[in-house]
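[Q] Does anyone have a clean structure-token version of this?
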Amino acid sequence: MKDYKSLHKIVLLLLALLISPYGVAQMEPNAQLKAAYEQDQEDRKHGSLSLYRDAQRIKLVRSLLEQNKLKNAEDYYRAALIMQHGQDSDHYKQAIALAKKAVLLKPNHKQARWLACATEDRYLHSIGRPQVWGTQFVGTFEYSLEPFDRHAKTDQERIANNIPPLQEILRQLRAMNNALTEEQSE
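[A] Here you go.
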């Protein structure tokens, strides 16, 4: 009888894990969202950005959210990335929430952690406030991180969110500007 009770407890625990958002058997990613995400990335890889296609993908994400069709961390991450490619602060705010939901569902999702921070910086920039993580390099003839509150986040916070320490970010900025200067002098 004791073995039966132990087995019963194990079965209940496994069942709880299966239906839990933290469980091992997560639902399959949304195929429609996956296709939209892949097209978004293809567009950017080939430099064929289209505000129209971005708007269509954003419309799709909003529709899937309304229908409660996002089921796992990867869905939320993909939706966040699409929203991050929007054109206004509302898109960015929604992208932050979606990326944070992905991290909640899968705490070790490094890309979602980075995306939440990068989108926070993009959002802050869009409302005229300084970025806090140091992820947004802006400029035409010279790249800059400004406005940037370098003391808002620690290197430990950056590293925990898959962002390089401040000195590495500043080194990247110098390298980008050096490469730009070389291009301009050719």
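[Q] Thanks! Anything notable?
[A] Residues 166-185 form the longest helix (20 residues).
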